[in-house]
Amino acid sequence: MSHNYHFETKRIHAGYSSADHFHSVNVPIYQSAAFDIDDIDRANRLWTGDEDGGIYSRVGNPTGFILEQRIAELDGGSAAVAVSSGMSAIAYTVLLLGEGGGNIISSSSLYGAAQEALAHFFPKFGIITKFVNNRNDVSEYESLIDDDTKAIYLESISNPNIEIYDFEAIAEVAHKHGVPLIVDNTVATPYLFRPFEHGADIIVYSATKGISGHGNVIAGLVVEKGDFEYSRERFPQFHEKSYKIRDLEGNPRSPLEFAPSFPLIAQLKVFYLEFIGAVLSPFDAYLVLQGLDTLAERLDKQVASARKIISYLENKEEVEWVRHPEAKGNPYKGLADRYFPNGAGAVFSFGFKGTRARIKKFIASLEVVSYHVNLGDVRTLIANPPETTHGELLPELLELAGIPDNLLRISVGLENADDIIADLEQAFEKAFGED
Ligand SMILES: *Cc1c(COP(=O)(O)O)cnc(C)c1O
């Protein structure tokens, strides 16, 4: 677009011109496995990346291309790739940076499946993770970096405890040692947090959550900022020439020669989508685009409602604590104010003061708030992470992640906030009433 428009404008218009798509106001769903090539010269240009366009939908589809362009513009990145889940976004990124083996440095407060994958699954591919104990101790990250370190990995708003990092300080340490910073920006979404403005080099998303926002699609995105310098020693895969990314004369090129401003996304498309194939389907890309249209309004309302519900819970005798930067005495308030001017999201957790039997009754009594494991949905959701979202974690990982047995997590939706409070209130009454 010709002007640097505001977020609210770009999330509706970026990456799309209706004149190029039969004047369709909505982004069309290109439900086609393959695309006509026209002639052999064009085939060569498509295969060498000298011309953009659909070839075969496993390596990308026009509906997805528009989503990729839109998210790249919203985050201020050079390119993005749309994949079929948040976990495939994470796995592709970690496996690519760690090709041949190495280590990742991460905080331990992560999405359950991401934490489990880093701790026990990626090691099967020679990529181990060193978890820091103190998430904002920059010197601890630095002391863990060695010649085989491939990335520092953080979540911009961790769930369920809503911890916030000093991103710029951690990025500085990473860059000093030639290591990129990956941020999972799922819970924040690009509306609440812009990781590239605070030192991140790569963003991964589960677009299943707030970005799409309606709980009707599983999707993931990887966004690259484009100015990280991948050294030959630490990241040979960025420098190795391959015939697969040859130029028009047939000379093999390296990813950095093939796509100097997006060498990571290029490899994810040319090798990972090509050989593993977790591409986002055109219909799912369309659902994510539709969700993005209302992202700012949804989050503004959810953040305002969360504020109200948090202050209700803080005054409840049956609540031991509430964890969110908006809660009284929260240690992350300062960092949240600095990095999240539009609010630190609408997901929070609280400690239920009562037995497991009462938790069970409380959850079963809810009428408006629904019990299922998603986030950022239009519906208000409650979950008990120790037995669900983080249920795969062994007790010691749960403890490291700071998730006690009585923790309940809420993701605030778009219902009337007073109705959500009324629903919680009647459920508390039932949970603590006579049997
Ligand atoms: C849900 C989630 C994921 C995984 O996303 P899927 O789309 O379910 O694969 C990764 N990170 C965070 C923070 C999440 O909330």
Characterise the protein shown here:
- The chain has 435 residues and is α/β, with parallel strands linked by helices.
- It is 36% helix and 14% strand.
- It contains 16 helices and twelve strands.
- It has helices at residues 7-13, 40-47, 62-75, 86-97, 112-121, 138-144, 167-176, 189-192, 255-258, 263-275, 282-292, 295-314, 333-339, 356-365, 395-400, 417-431; strands at 79-83, 102-107, 127-132, 149-155, 181-184, 202-206, 220-224, 319-323, 347-352, 370-371, 381-383, 407-411.
- A seven-stranded mixed beta sheet has the order 1-7-6-5-4-2-3, sandwiched between helices. A five-stranded mixed beta sheet has the order 8-9-12-11-10, covered by helices on one side.
- Helix 8 links the parallel strand 5 and strand 6.
- Helix 6 packs parallel to helix 7.
- The longest helix has 20 residues, at 295-314.
- The structure holds pyridoxal-5'-phosphate (PLP).
- Pyridoxal-5'-phosphate is lined by residues 85-87, 111, 114, 155, 184, 186-187, 206, 208-209, 218, 220, 375.
